[in-house]
Write a structure and sequence with these properties.
It is built from 17 helices and 23 strands. It is an alpha+beta fold. The relative contact order is 0.11. The structure holds adenosine-5'-triphosphate (ATP).
Length: 487
């Protein structure tokens, strides 16, 4: 799949009702998206898979659901007010604004080399990887202050918009939190933030949840919900947006056990993405280099997927030590700790975090499932979604679009809906109907024809092989169950 294929996915999403541009009738709001009737089902199934895997199937993880608006002191304690910044630069000629590290990632190797030489003269440090190299350059350019902009220009850093060398401003820090005000007065005392992550809702409720759930270390608290970041550069469809959903697990452990649990959760999370039917060769775990780590984190893995635009992060799994609870204990009146029966004293537990994006996982599933095939000289587009994620599990097609076949099909779809999601499609030729359902990712199609009226049999068609088999109407639910469990 080439880079242009993201456009094909955007267009399929619109055509079939997965995703629409937000506020489209007003010309759209950049980088914000609405989930349509098929999109909402796929997203819901994805989230259910996560909740089932992380919370329901385990006796040492419980869930919670915190408010999006929180006390502003939460974000001071967490470090977000001071540190949740991205470095940005503007091109004074084109008036385009970029996140500095993203701008550098897109430059030719010789430009990066020339910038490296300009910053480090004859003594460049060892770079562990390309990512590490960009992180270090970005940090140094930030620290340079007044001369950063001219250095970018002199090294030949080009504006991706115009293709020409940019007339760059000096890099400056931009806080990513959306601000709002609570109540009618709009002054500094009423400032509130839309949460930029769901995790803090868990940390400030650690003691509440631990005491009421009576969990003992090691145990986890999980949450999913909306987060907001005023990203400087958005793009690649759902990959980076300003409003998105996260699925986060904070797993509390004894400090000496963090390494073990970091390995455990990194592998668990990689396996979870594989369990969604995503091509295993396109998934990997990448350990962060020392310079990529946040100051509070001693080790971190990313689950990455090989998108048409390159390997990119789906999720971060991090050893955060006791940083978060320590910070809240230092700032809040009410202290949080855990009474450890083994040591017979109160301790502050350490935490291993797994933080994934729902919309990124959704995009990954779609990109991975997208296929174009040639069948009898015609192009067939299909989504090879895992049946457990497909918005519609089984579509029912009466050959005739009225009369007794439709009545029979209505009864059948009702039967399907007792356990699975079903849909009846009477519009257009049977070939057209198959193609629509292939694009929707519907794994099974049942056709009601004149033979059905005589012997109560129907054909069931497999989306991927397009093979059809004649089965008895009574066995439909059994058929769907056994076909789904075989995938
Ligand atoms: P990046 O470096 O890509 O900005 P990050 O390392 O800041 O991401 P985290 O803070 O670790 O991201 O967030 C955890 C997860 O939340 C990410 O792996 C991603 O799946 C999701 N996420 C973060 N920011 C966005 C966004 N702007 N749009 C969509 N999903 C996001």
């Amino acid at each position: 799949m080439d880079i242009k294929s993201i456009d094909k996915i955007v267009s399929l999403c619109k055509r079939r009702g997965f995703i629409f541009q937000s506020s489209e009738v007003y010309g759209g709001l950049a980088s914000t998206w609405d989930y349509g009737h098929l999109g909402v089902e796929l997203k819901r199934k994805l989230k259910n898979e996560w909740w089932q895997n992380i919370v329901t199937s385990r006796d040492n993880v419980v869930g919670m659901d915190a408010a999006i608006l929180m006390h502003p002191k939460v974000w001071e304690a967490s470090g977000h007010v001071e540190n949740f910044n991205d470095p940005l630069v503007d091109n004074k000629d084109t008036k385009k604004r970029y996140r500095l590290d993203h701008l550098l990632e897109g430059q030719k190797p010789e430009v990066v080399e020339s910038l490296t030489n300009a910053i480090f003269k004859d003594n460049p440090p060892e770079f562990a990887s390309e990512e590490d190299h960009i992180v270090i350059l970005t940090q140094h350019l930030n620290d340079l202050g007044e001369t950063g902009g001219s250095l970018l220009k002199d090294s030949g850093v080009r504006d991706p918009h115009s293709g020409a060398v940019g007339n760059w401003t000096n890099p400056r820090q931009f806080n990513l939190m959306f601000q709002t005000h609570i109540g009618p007065t709009q002054d500094s005392s009423s400032i509130a933030y839309l949460r930029p992550e769901t995790a803090q809702g868990i940390f400030v409720n650690f003691a509440n949840v631990q005491i009421t759930s009576r969990q003992k270390l090691p145990f986890g608290i999980a949450q999913m919900g909306k987060s907001f970041r005023n990203e400087i550069t958005t793009g690649n469809f759902l990959f980076r947006t300003r409003e998105f959903e996260q699925m986060e697990l904070e797993f509390f452990v004894h400090l000496e056990d963090t390494k073990k649990w970091l390995e455990y959760w990194s592998n668990e999370r990689l396996e979870w993405f594989k369990s969604l039917g995503i091509t295993p060769e396109k998934l990997r775990l990448r350990a962060h280099g020392g310079d990529e780590l946040a100051h509070y984190s001693s080790a971190c893995y990313d689950v990455e997927y090989q998108f048409p635009f390159g390997w990119s992060e789906l999720e971060g799994i991090a050893d955060r030590g006791t940083f978060d609870l320590d910070q809240h204990n230092a700032h809040a009146d009410k202290k949080q700790s855990y009474f450890d029966p083994q040591q017979n004293k109160h301790i502050v537990p350490a935490v291993v975090e797994s933080s994934a994006g729902v919309d990124r996982a959704f995009l990954t599933v779609l990109v991975d499932a997208y296929r174009e095939e040639e069948v009898n000289g015609e192009k067939r587009v299909l989504l090879k979604l895992a049946p457990k994620l497909a918005p519609i599990t089984c579509a029912v097609f009466p050959l005739m679009n009225k009369g007794e076949q439709v009545e029979k099909a209505e009864l059948l779809v009702k039967e399907v809906r007792r356990e699975f999601s079903g849909f009846i499609d009477t519009g257009g030729s049977i070939g057209k109907r198959y193609r629509r359902q292939d694009e929707a990712g519907t794994p099974y199609g049942i056709t009601v024809d004149h033979q059905t009226m005589e012997d109560d049999t129907v054909t069931i068609r497999d989306r991927d092989t397009m093979e059809q088999e004649r089965i008895s109407i009574d066995s439909i639910l059994d058929q769907l169950r056994s076909r789904i469990s075989a995938t």
